[in-house]
Amino acid sequence: MLWRMLPVDLRSDTVTRPSPGMREAMARAEVGDDWYGEDPTVNRLQEEAAALLGKEAGLFVPSGTMANQIALRVLCRHGDDVLVGQESHIQWYENGAAGALAGVQLSVIGRGGLFSAEEVALACKSDDQICPPTRLVCVENTHNRSGGRVWPREQLFAVCDAARRLGLALHLDGARLWNAAVACGASPAELAAPFDTVAVSLSKGLGAPVGSLLLGQRDLIRSARRYRQMYGGGMRQAGVLAAAGLYALHHNRARLVEDHDNAAFLASRLAAHPGVDLQPVQTNILMLDLRPPLPEAHVVVEALKGRGVLVSAFGARRIRVVTHLDVDRAACAYAAAAFDAVLGGA
Ligand SMILES: Cc1ncc(COP(=O)(O)O)c(C=O)c1O
Questions:
Q1: Average pLDDT of the segment spanning 195-217
Q2: Domain 31-251 class, CATH top level
Q3: Topology, domain 2-15+255-344
């Protein structure tokens, strides 16, 4: 039955397709015009997500990028300085929107997506007529480009305490907060507690086709709604999509542990290859670096594609592999064997 599982698509956890149960929930969704606040399914999703994350209110938005960008608008003024970790999504993948739309400057601190309380204090600029005033600290948990890294809890809370002492606001890019919570045995609300705003995705590990949420205090979310409209993210009978989000929250959170186990399985198989350097695997993302004489990443990506396995080149010698609910252990075993054939024969 090999043909059934090909291709094994490990490029991202965004490639999942809605399951039959999710599609049924979408088809049955009660809807209304969300512009009037009258879509009952959207309202339910926003309320449930807010409760899950321990916040007063939530706003359903089309993408994680929009959730992050609205947070920057709500929490900052033009000309403000924002502290972000190295290679954060906000800095790397949002097409310069922080500068172009929110009008803020991003200052990159720390290493590998993490930073310390001391680094926050050192980078914090005062409002003294020449420096851009530092207004906000953004934390990405898990951190995508450093291989799904989870923020150690003590470090996370120390950074948030330091930011508060300095009078700074806090935003959490929690596109994969669900993975972080499962990996460190905390509730999503516990990890979200210190933050003014939290962005979470429904369309990554949770398997919904579309959607993210921005959560925070009621007044912040009221103003977020204005910016969602400004950015063209206002929706109408969005309950069809919110139903997928509710299904994802109810059915697909606890099972993320399977994705983490599959990533650990793949890591154990790949680590056996001389010339492969693996970053520690904590959740569902593996980053592997290929040392010469192994070929460059794009060559390996093409060779794997020829065997029905899709992964991403993340630099000349780096490959990213992501597990998710549409690849089971058998598919991962197939992918591991394909890597063996490609790397072993190199
Ligand atoms: C950490 C992180 N934040 C935000 C996003 C943006 O989400 P979207 O693709 O829905 O805009 C992503 C997408 O991969 C992400 O990895």
A1: 98
A2: alpha beta
A3: Aspartate Aminotransferase, domain 1 (3.90.1150)
